[in-house]
Amino acid sequence: MLKSFNNYITLFANYITIEGICMLNYSYTIVHHSSALPLLRIWNATVEKCVLPMREHSHNVFEIAVFLSGNATYHVGDKVYGVSAGDVFVFSSNEQHCITEIKEDLTYCAIHLDPKYLWGSSADSLSSNNTNICLFHSDSFENRLSSGNSSAVVIKNAILNIADEMKNKEAEYKMMVKNYINQIVVELIRKTDYISQSDTSSLLPHIKTIKKVITYIDTHLTEEITLKEISKIAEMSPNYFCSIFKTVHGVTAWDYITSKRCDMAAHLLLSEKNCNIIEIAERCGFNNTANFNKAFRKRTGVTPSQYRKHGDML
User: Fold this and answer.
1) In terms of pTM, does the model score above 0.85?
2) Is-contact 89 141, C-beta < 8 A?
3) Region class of 39: left (phi > 0), else alpha (psi between -120 and 50), else beta
4) What is the pLDDT of residues 168-210, one digit of tens each?
5) 266-294 burial, b for 16+ CB within 10 Å, e for fewer?
């Protein structure tokens, strides 16, 4: 047991000290007007052959990645997948995942999508049956769509088209990006078993209310947010609000607030290198660095200083 632990520490030390493991080839974002956090981010990275420690992490966002070359091992919860060129991986919000071994240099393109990006208007948004596509998937869904799968080909092409649109920024490129995202979502709904068949009709009256609360939280992350305050916005008692929020969104309201603050901190750690970690913690609504460090490591699998050095490319 001690030998295994020492091996883990050695691997982790190597991971955080070796320079040049990851090379970011490009990164583009679409940012919401009321938040510093992107609604959509797409990036392409190359990762050298290496062995990594188990660094399970999750995001508030919906994640889709296509692997363009290389060979690796992916852990998703208690499942282990091989990774090869052409494979597409899909992760719902807050789903734990981690790459542990890269057997051949790996190049991939990934998208992080805030669920708000799909809300749309009543005329063009998802139907009530699929509102929570970013938050949950069926128990039978396998996170990997193998390269030979027809849906993997459709999604791969859509992702690469999104990258081209974001790079070239031709007229109405954001509309084209949304079209490709819609294509990916519809492909998952129609051609895979991603969608859970459970009855969510009882939640429909509450979904609009929870969206209203989420919008408030997302635009007030840097301020003090209380349960009394957000349950009042929802026009519910605090206890009932907590129950409804977790049922609709999959996590507690406080876990959502904490994880969104960690997302903001991650963004600032990489975009504002001159700002120290204590300042970032305060700007993101954490009242002390101990709480910030604990929450950030739980969310990302690394400390804020390690994240600043290597980012979230894996």
Assistant:
1) no
2) no
3) alpha
4) 999 999 999 999 999 999 999 999 999 876 656 566 678 889 9
5) bbbbeeeeeeebeebbebbbbeeeeebbe
